[in-house]
Each structure stands twice: as C-alpha cells, then as structure tokens.
Amino acid sequence: MTGTALPLLGEDFAACCSPLTAGVLDEDAAERLARVFRALGDRHRVRLLSLIAAADGGEACICDLTAPVGLSQPTVSHHMKLLTEAGLVTRDQRGKWAYYRVVPEAMEALSGTLRTTR
Amino acid sequence: MTGTALPLLGEDFAACCSPLTAGVLDEDAAERLARVFRALGDRHRVRLLSLIAAADGGEACICDLTAPVGLSQPTVSHHMKLLTEAGLVTRDQRGKWAYYRVVPEAMEALSGTLRTTR
DNA sequence: TCGATGCATCGACAATAATCGATGCATCGA
DNA sequence: TCGATGCATCGATTATTGTCGATGCATCGA
C-alpha cells in the first residue's frame, strides 16, 4: 500500500467542513476548498471519477482509463495526480498497476460544504 | 428584476443531478458539471459566495464585495459573472446597484452530485 | 537475464484564465 | 441638466493549466 492522499479537506473529514454559506470563510479555508473544487473543474477529471466509481470493485488502473476518456497515458496520470492531491481518490500500487479508488468521505465532506439547509 | 442566471445544472434542479458516482457520465454531463465546479475553483469566488450568503438580507452588491476580497471592481464583476453563468448566484439590478444572491437550489443540486450514499 | 508492460516525471507548447486600467452606459441626487 | 456613483465590457498582460512525446524506473513473464 503506497497511498499518498493529501487530504486538503482537512485531517478529519467529519469535522473540517462547515457549509460554505454558514459564515464568511477566511483566506485559507477558501483556498483549501477552491483547490478541491478546482480538481473537479475539468470534464475529464469528472469523468475519470465516475469511471472509477463505476468500475468493477470500485477501483481502476490508469490503463483502464485512458481509452474511455480518450487521452494519453501521461495526461491521465497527470489528472489522477491532481485528484489524488485533492484527496478525492487514493492511489494503491499493486505490482505493475496503480489502482485508484474514490474516497467517499471526501466526497461527502465536500458535499457538506455545499449544503445550505441544515 | 433582470436576473440572468444560466442554470448549467439543468432546467430542473431537482431532477437533473444524479450522483457523480452513480454511473459513468457522458461527455456532456461531465462538461456541464465541471463547468460549475470550475466556478468554485477559485478562492476569491468561494469567498465571494460566502460573503454574499453571510451578508445582510442574503444579498450583496459589487461595492460591498471589492474591499473584503481585495480585488478591483472589474475583477470582482468578472468573478460574479462566472458565478452567475454557473447558476450559483442570481443578479438583480435595482437602480444603480446589482444585487447578487446565492441560489440554494443550485448549491443543493451540486451537493447532491457529490453524495455517495443514498 | 531480457524484453515487454504500466506508470510517473520531465520538458515544451498551446490553450485558459485571472487581473487591472480605461472606458462607456445608466442611474441617482442636487 | 450635470457631476458623481455603480457596474459591465474591452483590451492587454501575466499566470495557470492541459496536453503530449520522450524518457526512466519498476515489475512481470519467459
């Protein structure tokens, strides 16, 4: 296991993220949040995320992803790095393959920041 | 009322947005989603959103926003345009002032696309 | 041990995006 | 009617990001 997620959403998913609209965010909080949203701000990365989530076993390697998104291997690798750094996916190297997996807690936490009703 | 929101999330907020991870998104859906996330992918825009939500009456004009974010008026105007086009805020011109307001339905819909449990 | 495979990194280039000053259009108050 | 104010748009510049070919490092199977 060589997962290298950098949880930009905070160490503790459950406690880090109050709704965006609950009060004025300071610069740091805004930047951290924006960085995660930026990771989702590309159609290919959004697509990659849905491909991984829908993949058999909930995980996929780069080789499974290049064809569906129609990008080169280095480019897909680059996008996956951004998603990993955002904490939205984890990377697990097993032999030759690097398996990526969606982090539900991160998705939930991010979802929570957009919730307006309590 | 001169609101000009372009609801990129779809005409019907409630019905448009199944979770990102519920199945493989087609190109169009991925692009539409990514465009909205991209609108949130800037710390100033995230901040602007929280400022508006926290403002008195839930609305704010450009002139209320320039100082807090420390950007020029044209730049703030530009950011607000992006947020408006993403459907995350509405614009309402009243006299000299343009009042911006968060669209809770859009936030909720977007929040829903990130939800992994149902 | 060696060729093949999967992947990340690097370097370069092209495309997007952020920012601001200048400007023009309304609207308001005097 | 006129100056002042609020805002959007334009044009230019800089910064950021997406993309790919080339390359190098592991790992696997023969």
List keywords for this structure.
disordered N terminus; 118 residues; three-stranded antiparallel beta sheet; homodimer; Arc Repressor Mutant, subunit A; alpha+beta; DNA-binding; 6 helices
Per CATH, the architecture of chain A is Orthogonal Bundle
Oligomer: homodimer
Count of discrete structural domains of chain A: 1
- What is the helix tally of chain A? 6
Give the SSE order of chain A as H and E letters.
Answer: HHHEHHEEH
Fill in the CATH topology of chain A.
Arc Repressor Mutant, subunit A
Report the major sheet of chain A: 3 strands, antiparallel
Low-confidence stretches of chain A: 1-6
Q: What structural class do the secondary elements of chain A suggest?
A: alpha+beta
Please state how the strands of the largest beta sheet of chain A are arranged side by side.
Answer: 1-3-2
Overall average pLDDT of chain A:
88
Report what the structure shows.
Two copies of one chain form a homodimer. Chain A has a three-stranded antiparallel β-sheet with strand order 1-3-2. Helix content of chain A is 52%, strand content 13%. Chain A contains six helices and three strands, in the order H-H-H-E-H-H-E-E-H. In chain A, a hairpin with a 2-residue loop joins strand 2 and strand 3. The first copy, chain A, has one domain (27-114): Winged helix-like DNA-binding domain superfamily/Winged helix DNA-binding domain (Arc Repressor Mutant, subunit A, Orthogonal Bundle), CATH 1.10.10. Chain A is α+β, with helices and mostly antiparallel strands and 118 residues long. The first copy, chain A, is elongated and about 45 Å long. The A-B interface holds A 20-25, 27, 30-31, 33-35, 37-47, 49-51, 53-54, 68, 102, 104, 107-108, 110-112, 114-117 and B 20-25, 27, 30-31, 33-35, 37-47, 49-51, 53-54, 68, 102, 104, 107-108, 110-112, 114-117. Chain B binds a DNA duplex (30 and 30 nucleotides) through residues 38, 42, 44, 61-63, 71-75, 77-79, 81, 93, 95-98.
